[in-house]
Amino acid sequence: MIKEIRHLDKYPFPCQLEGRIHSSYVCKAPQPTYTLMAMEKPPEIAASAGEKIPEQHAIDVGHEEHIDGKGEDVEALGKERVAVAEEVQNKQKSKRVAALDAFRGLTIVLMILVDDGGGAYERIDHSPWNGCTLADFVMPFFLFIVGVAIAFALKRVPKIGASVKKIVIRTLKMLFWGLLLQGGYSHAPDDLSYGVDMKMIRWCGILQRIALVYFVVALIEAFTRKVRPTTVGSGPYAIFDAYRWQWLGGFIAFVIYMVTTFSLYVPDWSFVYHNDGDVNDGKQFTVQCGVRGHLGQACNAVGYVDRQVWGINHLYTQPVWIRSKDCTFSSPNTGPLRANAPAWCLAPFEPEGLLSSVSSILSGTIGIHYGHVLIHFKTHKERLKHWLLMGFSLLVLAIILHFTNAIPLNKQLYSFSYVCFTAGVAGVVLSAFYILIDVWGLRTPFLFLEWIGMNAMLVFVLGAQGILAAFVNGWYYKSPDDTLVHWIVKHVFVNVWHSQRLGTLLYVIFGEIVFWGVAAGILHKLGIYWKL
């Protein structure tokens, strides 16, 4: 006979703790002894309808004698034990908060849409300077959901040393892939060559920024585990107090960014423009500054720090500010330079630079707060109350800062108002997904986002970074421009709709996003995932 005992204090027989590795209780009774081992909870968190889920246990049945005298087989006992454990695991998997995967998948989808469709519809591409477009949500959404995931991932690693080792290894992996994909080595998908001149390598990028934020936020989470309470009180600020060290880390990052941005002196600087075939190729330009606290394109502290730390030849050479009104009459679209365009229009600028990445730590800090809420509050009402209140509060603060011109929304500078605005939107979007998917059970319409979110790294590398498209383009007929991808774009989408812009957008939606949704779904059914 097998019993599942959920509350030891209500069990009628004396129980005692045994073992140092597992939380193992042996309960003596007239019947055979039952040993219960506390099972490590997976990263999924139960989405209860209104009451706290009791702690689940796996049951290991150990008779004082190997058989009960009636010919019971040890092998059958082992199968029974495995079946019980699998049943418990299946119950836990069914309670996975699917909204987190859907949010991660949405972020990847947005990235593909704005990267490959932004050339045709530049209004969804990054804002030339101040403001916020659809593309400007991608990076902070990544950092937000990374923060949420940290709260779960480190909860499963009990020892600080093991946590630090995991954090360091994962950070190094992200740095490696970031340099490989965005440092200039890969020219995918259109250019079939590869390799980078180390004098011009780009040190910063999307994965590099994620690596920095993950490293800082995760280390704080790991080292403060023993100094925070295991339970959170019912007060409105109790959870902030319980995780005050995380907020202190975010506040330090905020102070470093604000003090540097508004107090650092930015002198005049010069650069040499490199663009084969351009009339300005090889020319040297000088930008006059000599100011402090400037938030414009030419003389901000964010760009100055990157020029000093990385060197001007290692920065991004195609900044979006070339689409600003100061540079072209076609703004916000790309167009010919104005005759009187300032010199900085052709200058390099790093949108994922060092100082702006320090500010982005706040996005990860806010994300991990949402993860803590999900862990400690077990009812839908409590979770949504905390999430939505914080989300709308951040939105109001960001709107006030932007429209009073105190601190404009700016993705390139990763301004404080931009942090608040994008984190607020992320919180509201996550809450909406949580209501639709986990509360109301409308999971089917969002399954493709869940699948992509479960295999986010694979879709990011092969899809968003164009590695699979580059592989297909490598098999061309007569000319590198005559490939299967180019044929599909031209004959299936552009020629059918008689529009280059609309055809490109439809290809991105159906040829890329839908394709990767189906591919990720197949991989999910096969149990194949790529995780760092």
Automatic annotation (TrEMBL):
Is this entry keyworded Membrane?
Answer: yes
List the InterPro entries hit by this protein, alphabetically. HGSNAT_cat
Identify the keywords attached in UniProt to this record, alphabetized: Membrane, Transmembrane, Transmembrane helix
Coiled-coil region(s): none
Q: Keyword Membrane, does the record have it?
A: yes
Instruction: Give residue ranges for domain Heparan-alpha-glucosaminide N-acetyltransferase catalytic.
Output: 96-224
Q: Where are the transmembrane segments?
A: 97-114, 134-155, 167-188, 200-224, 245-266, 387-407, 413-437, 458-477, 504-523
Q: What is this protein called?
A: Heparan-alpha-glucosaminide N-acetyltransferase catalytic domain-containing protein
Source organism per UniProt: Eragrostis curvula (weeping love grass)
